[in-house]
Amino acid sequence: MKTFRETALLLSAALFLTACGKEAVQETGPSGSVSGRKVEMTFGLSASGMTSPAAFIPVTAKAAGADEALVLETGAQEPLTRGASLSGDEEGKLHGLWVLQFDNTTSAGKLVLREYHAAGEIQNDKLSVALYDAAATKVYFVANVADDKFSSLPLNTTTLGAFETSVLDFADEAAAGSSGNGLPMAGVYEGAASAATADISLRRMVAKISFTCKVDLAMSSESFVLKKIGLKSVSNRTSYKNQTVPGGTTGLYPAAEAGNFADYAEVDVTAQGSDPTAMATTGVTQVWYVPENLRGVVAGLTEKQKGSRNAPEYSTFIEMSGDYTQGGETFEVTYRIYPGENASTDFNVVRNYRYAIATTIKGINENDSRVTVNKGEDLGKDGETANCYLAHKAGTVYKFDATVKGNGAVTAAYNANGQNAPAIDGTQVLSPVSAKVLWETGSKGSVIADGSLKVDNKGYVYFTTAGDKGSDIAEGNALIGVFSGADGSGTLLWSWHVWATRYDPETDNDTYVTRALAASGSGNGSIVTTSSRSYTVMRFNLGADASSAEGTVGRYGLLYQWGRKDPFVGAAALNSSGTSYAATSNATGYEWKNRKNSEAVAAATADASIGYAVQHPTEFLFYSGSPYDWLNVSANSDQRDNLWGNPNTAVTRPNASQGSKSIYDPCPPGWRVAPQDTWTAFAKNGTGGSSQQNVYPDTFSAGYSFYYDANDASSGKTAFFPAAGLRNNNSGELANTSSNGYYWSSSPNYGGNNNAGNLNFNSGNVNPLNNNNRANGFSVRCVQASARPSLRSPILPDMPDEKLLADVFSAYYDARRNKRNTYSQLRFEMNLEENLVELYREIDERRYRVGRSMCFITDIPVKREIFAADFRDRVVHHLLFNYIAPMLERTFIADSYSCRKGMGTLYGIRRLERHIRSCSDNFRRECYVLKLDIRGYFMNIDRRKLYGMLVDTFARFARRPARDGKTWEQLLDYGLIRYLTREIVFNDPTCNCYVRGRRSQWEGLPPSKSLFHTPEGCGLPIGNLTSQLFSNVYLSKLDDFVKRSLGERHYGRYVDDFFIVGNDRLRLLRLIPVIRDFLKNELGLSLHPDKMHLQEAVKGINFLGAVVKPYRRYLLDKTKRRVNLQVRCAVCQPVRQMTSTLNSYLGYMRHLNCRNFTRKLVERNPGLCERGRFAADYLKFIPYKRSPGDDRRGEVAGAESRGGLQGRDANPTEVGIPVSAGFP
Q1: Angle value at C-alpha 467, between 465 and 468, nearest 5 degrees
Q2: Cα angle: 1023, vertex 1126, 854; to 5 degrees
Q3: The pTM is what?
Q4: What is the rounded distance in angstroms from the CA atom of residue 156 to the CA atom of residue 114?
Q5: Quick one: three-class SS letters along 1063-1099?
Q6: Average pLDDT for the chain
Q7: CA dist., res. 557 & res. 576, Å (int)
């Protein structure tokens, strides 16, 4: 018995010691194909060497070409700097090891053993493990993970398949290997578990990227300061099982989901990057350990194309950014390098690989997709500057010219009514050294991204708006000041208001028509006879939150003292009073202050006060006595009536003058403070008083919605004006919020009066010609600066712009060419001169609006919906076309074939043939043509994007030479072309049209081909001259992408049909998804799935109605049928129209191999020879001299064919023309 007890105690002690050394398995033991018996197996453990890509780039750097932006090289050298890199021994060191045995090798195999072994148990790289005996088992060895990583894995239930699909998560960069725990590694043994030995090669589950960046620019006159290096789009997880490296674009790992990727923290290298000598020799080096990220291979890319445009989603990349100086201008440039097996097509970051990459920055090349040049979007409008700029996009770099005070204008002196205000000279050039955000709404960085503000050596201020690029911008306001010294030191030279808003007044505004006022009263301040005027007015107060609802505090906007350029914040809440201002973050020294003007400004002069206000834009200066101005002056004679550019020389009101915008005007480019008579339509009697408010609905809700068109005074459109209250003229505190609205005009009340004119209203009263002390803080609602007085006189010498009138007449002659005797034209020409002069006036006064269109269906050449503009609108289309087409023509590539003189259908066919010949070496090499078509192109053009492209082009060409030694902005009225462009682009013809034809004609027309079914804000009408031009502009972005970014030389486009010619069939196929993604992301368009064709060139290519084959071109059969039909119809038309149609087809066919078809065409239509003869070889039709009978026959036949719905099938109400009008 004693012996038994001793034996039991010894066994218990042995079991206890075993439990202390290793994780105990479940007492139930293994199940499945392994036995309960254990065998000791010895494993030799070694970390396999890191693999370097075999075909990345030659070890020695290649010579830089003239246009090279980056030169890449690789080598075996270790990094030169950064202590975070592990030594070679450390990269292979084992800090601990998990052993996981599964009972068989199938995915259903069960986990039967899990043991953790500390580093001390591994002796001489060998480890003995007691495995469960099995004929076939799979054992995973996972090193350098937490010692409790797998302790909770259930035995006998965890399957091999579940384990192999599980992942190791990396919380941050340090977890991937630089935390001191070693690099995570994994190895596997598969075979019999027996008393034997086996070698296990442990592969690191991460890759190592050693990256060195040097700067050695090719141009000594340029410089680049590298500021930041970062590794982006890094996988934050990896599997324990080795993944198959994809050779294409499928089988990617991990899944393309945002949660699977993160960016490593950027490293600030400004100190090293600022030393050009060190950067040219040693550069800066960064080392990262990154989890595996397999994003595949994109075939056909060149080194320069291995950039963000072509990279698969979530590909890992190295990003370098800094400041590039070129030609005196400093801007941000970002370079991207995508690691992989090579420098062009491979985007795989493979585990246990070492990517030793060195790059030398040589310059900038905007055609290199690895380079992003961010010169900032210029907030100036066609070269015009201002004190306020609107920023519409989040996460976007903007810039403005900070050398100009406001708009840089010179405002004339004002010497009247006892006042001698000097001229305001805005021509002084500022020399800013640094910039600072003086205040912004919300917390720091809410409007202007923290740290993004800078001044270049040309005096441009650059900043980045807060938020992520592509997201909606956060509404807010900020004030940026520039200083004479570095880092915000020295003198504050000037300041600018940045209004971050989604509101775009260029496309979203109201046209006010003021009331004509009769003279009333006598003496100073009496009402003077005033003609009706038209103004284009913003829909929001300056600085308002455009996303807020009517009747909320967000609509209030900012407040201004009369004549000052800088804004003050208003109420924090709807009914705030006192000092309950909206929250802002202010720079030190620029906190909000309310100060008495005599205390702030020592000298009692206007000049001293103005200078003080410029340097102290956050100080509200309230009055110390008469004349109740923020200027520290004692009498009206010392005030400055010209501060906002519109003084009143008369002692009556409203001011008859419109004045001109001054350097103190707070409105953005193209806009100015409202003239004094802007709001006369708001009052039923024009001058206001109790219960005179002209509003709808008649309900006051922290503001009123006023009717603004005096011609439609009580049923037209309305504009909401919030009752934002004021900041008091004797304290600067808030008052009357939500109960009273006050809006400054640009004029004093009248000449010689110390007050300024304004709009004032409350729930029971409106006064559009009110006046108040200039020290008050009121709202501002800007008007377009181009507004002019209405001209009603028909006498031509009174016309202020004879050139515009001549241009309108010229456009009329262009519009009537080949359009004689249409109904709308005849109606217009009944009073031709009067109609043209009236059209001129509407354009000149910005009153023109697009008229009614006629919509109908045509089946030639295919079924489509046509909108025919009224003849009056066609004149305007030609006017705008004549202005902008020569400019836009310079932006088109040679292989764009529509709506261009001498570059139409035939030109396109010839170019296709030329591309095929060039690519195939005159048909001696294999050659393919990829043809693509855009689905519902005209119906899916985003009008806002189109308008943005046009305006950007206008701005880009503004100062380029045009002709006659003038620039484009000198040659054209930029305000006029922007206005006409806006009216035409944003016109929705479906809202103002009549439909001609029966409803049944629309049957079978796909919704994608009808404007009536397009998304809001999309679609251009087919049938307008401008639509053809604009369609070319919209797809110019595609042309540039294919030609420049993709590098396709053999490319051509006719409207929305385009082709690419190439020798590599597979490469052409791979272009389809690339182009599809570009169209979707950049233009909101899609490829037509049924119109993608890849054809062998020698078999013939159908394009533009013809077939192009080696050494010949001929008509398609369906084109022949269409020509037959059209010629038969032409025989019944008037001679002039018939001749035009026939010669058009003959001119086209003479360049194709179709002489027999032409001969048979003439034989089938004997009526042709009755009315004329053909030149040799049917080159041209020459009509006989017409007789009255022939003319009559043509007109009658033309009427029958032209109506489309005549005789018993006609229904006049469906045709759309009034029955009494008849047909011409």
Answers
A1: 115
A2: 25
A3: 0.51
A4: 11
A5: CCHHHHHHHHHHHHHHHHHHHCCCECCCCCEEEEHHH
A6: 85
A7: 14
- Closest of 750, 402, 405, 428 to residue 565, by C-alpha: 405
Q: Are strands 966-967 and 756-762 parallel, antiparallel or unpaired?
A: unpaired
Residue 923 CA to residue 927 CA, distance in Å, equals 8
Say how far apart CA 701 and CA 742 lie, in whole Å. 15
Neighbours of 960 (CB within 10 A): 11
SS (H, E, C) 407-444: CCCEECCEEECCEEECCEECCCCCCCCEEEEEEEECCC
DSSP secondary structure of 596-618: EHHHH-SS-SHHHHHHHHHH-TT
Residue numbers of the chain with a pLDDT score lower than 70: 1-35, 54-67, 73-88, 178-180, 327-328, 366, 382-383, 457, 786-801, 818-821, 861, 1130, 1176-1178, 1185-1224
Residue 1119, token pair as written in the block: 């084109």
Q: Which residues contact 1146 (CB under 8 A, 6 or more apart)?
A: 1158, 1178, 1179, 1180, 1181
Residue that the structure tokens 């039991």 belong to: 8
pLDDT digits (tens, 9 = 90+) for 135-177: 999 999 999 999 999 999 999 999 999 999 999 999 888 888 7
Residue 111 CA to residue 414 CA, distance in Å, equals: 94
CB 597 within 8 A of CB 638: no
d(CA 567, CA 943): 33
Task: Compute the Cα dihedral for 1025, 1026, 1027, 1031 and give only its sign.
Answer: positive
Residue 343 tokens, joined: 């420098």
pLDDT value at residue 248: 93
As a whole number of angstroms, the distance between CA 230 and CA 396 comes to 19
E-strand stretches of 563-605: 584-586, 593-596
In a 3-state reduction of DSSP, which class is residue 80?
A: coil
Q: Which residues contact 141 (CB under 8 A, 6 or more apart)?
A: 43, 45, 97, 98, 99, 100, 186, 187, 188, 189, 200, 202
Q: What pLDDT shows up at residue 1217?
A: 27
The alpha carbon torsion through 951, 954, 958, 961 (nearest 10 deg) reads 170
Give the Cα separation of 856 and 1022 in Å (integer). Answer: 11
pLDDT at 983: 85
Q: Chain centroid to CA 149: how far?
A: 47
What's the pLDDT at 327?
66
The answer to whether residues 484 and 493 touch, using CB atoms and an 8 Å cutoff, is yes
Q: What is the per-residue pLDDT for 927?
A: 93
CA 1015 to chain centre: 19
- The pLDDT score that the predictor gives to residue 819 is 62
Q: Kindly report the length of the chain.
A: 1224
Q: In angstroms, what CA-CA distances link 802 with 792, 796, 843? A: 16, 9, 13
